[in-house]
Every structure is written in C-alpha cells, then in structure tokens.
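Appendix B. Chain record.
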Amino acid sequence: MASKSNKKFAHTTSQQAYYMRPSEAKVVSLEGTARVDDAQKVRLGVVLMTKRPADLEQWLAYHRRVVGVEKFFLQIEDTPELAALLLRPPWNGCVDATFVAKTHRDYFVQMDRQAVNVKCAVERARAHGLEWLLHVDDDEMLHCPAGAGALHAALRALPPQCCDAHIKNLEALAPAPTCSRPFSECVTFVASTSKFASYTNGKSFGRVSSPGLRAHGPHHFRGDGSNATRDLPPSVAVVLHYESVAYERWTTKFSELAQRHGHDAKILEKLPFPFYRASLAAVGRLAAAADKDKAKAADDAFRVWSKSKVAGVSTLAPRDTVEVTAVRDALARLALTDASEADRAPLTAPPAKRPVREAKPPEPLPKI
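Structure tokens predicted for this chain:
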C-alpha cells in the first residue's frame, strides 16, 4: 500500500495501477564512461506504439544501424500509409507491425494500449530469441554517449535477477520556431530535470527472459518475483525526448487532447505537467476563438509553446542544458537517400500482412 507521501505519484487507469515518481531534481551528466567501440552484442528489440510519426524511417534506421537494434515491434495507429515503407527491405525483415484503426488520443487510455502492446511484444521477442526489449515512443531516440558498445557491454554485465534496466532522459529544444525535422535539427537538450516540460522518469529495457515480464507504466518493466531495477548511467545510454519541438505537431497533439479532455476539470487536474495543462488551455482557446480574436489567440498559443520549446526563446540558464550533436551527425552519415543495396532494393514478394483491426478496449491486465 502506498504511503501518504507517495499517494500523489499513484496513477490508476481502467486496467492498471502503478507508481510514476518523478526523478530527483538534478542535472543529467553525459560524461564518465570510457568509449567502447567493440563489444559482444546483446540481442536488442524495441517496442513502440505510434500514430502519424514525424519520420519513422529515420527513427528505424538510426536505431538499427547505430544502436544495433535487431527487431522492432510496432503498433501503428491510424497511419495505414506506412505499410508501403514497411513492406520494403530492410524493414520487411526486421519490423513486426500491427496496424490499428479508429483510435483516439487519450492521455490515460493510451497507457493501457501501450501495456497491451508491450505484453504482445514480449511474447514475440521471446520467440525471436531477443535478450532485452526497450519501450520508447516515436519522438524519442536512444543516445549512447560512449558508443553502442558501452550499452551492449553494460546490459550483458547486469545480474540475472535484474529485469528492468533503467535509463534517464533529456528533453529537446527546437533550434528555431521553423523546426520541422527534430531528429536532424535539434542539438540543445534540457538536462536539468526540474526544468523539463514533460516526464522526468526515464525509460527502461526489460529482460525478455524474466518470467511474467510486463510494462509497469510507460517507464519501467516488472516480472514475477524478479522486480530488481538497475540504473544505467547517462554516460552509457540516455533517451533524447523530442517532445513537441515542431510547432505544427504541438498544435495537432493538443488540439486532439483538448477535444478529448479540454472541458473535464478532473482530467486537467490529473495531468502531471504544467506545460501540458497550459498547452491544452492555449490550444483550446485558439479553437474556440471567434474570427476577430483568432490572431490574438494564435499569438498567445505560440508564446506558450515557444517559451518552453525554442532554444532562443527559453529562459533556461546554460547550466541547465547540454549540447548533443551525435544523433544529428549520425543521421547525416546514414544518408538514407544513399542507402545500401538491401535498403533500396525494389519490393519483391511481400510477407504476409496482418489485417487492420479496429481499436477496442484493452484486455484486462493485472494490477501491478
């Protein structure tokens, strides 16, 4: 049972109960681990639920060719056009995709859908012989400051009772209001967790062989009788979170959330982030404004976004940020337009495709 001091960190959806305590307020440092370029790889997978991603091919290519991810388990919501990409090499050999239609953006219900997606991915990861499974979102990149070899070595060195390898996160700032391709453009990241606009809880790798492995909210894994969490230092791996750094995507996201939650005071009170509450309010006012008031409402909404999301506008002190150019530089080296023969091979006989299914309430999950 949660203590009184921890009750505010308890989150309950229709299917789950878990704790989501924020990380302690500190500045995340990426220094301290010697670079490792050659290490015995562990077999890595990634599980993701995505809807209209900004640049899925960049995201896939980076994690496959830079980090060494072997298999991707994707639940793709209301984006059927991605099938053309995923039917082509190399993605038709390393992406296990399920297409879902008629979903709604709902801050809390989507956590239940994520949990079901992780449950299914764990079973498939075991069938493929994978060792670790990372749960992230489509606006997040895994960055290994000391090289991917250091990450693989760190995961291989963890004791067998560890089912949850946890890493911290940083939050991207747009270089300019016109930012449209965050992965290729953003190099400034908020490193002081007390200054984040979104979550501070990091993300986790789950050990696939752990009995009963399942999602424990969006940020951790748990197993049956094997709940040990080990923290990997940020100098080994960190999640780069590109939350709402493109203005158009911010307006779309919060317009959809406002349609779902905008008039429910109880839901707004439950939202853990002031930036989310301010964004919902600003976008809601913009949507409801009369024609004569649209310009002012649009200016107000832009100010709400830019003061938290644009490097040149934010009032953060230099000590609260860190420069990370590795992802941008890696993507430039990958040069997707000059991909390998396998990457640009024409579509041949496609693999069997799962039928598109409509979203439905998730199956019951255990209270964890």
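Further analysis of this model is presented in Appendix C.
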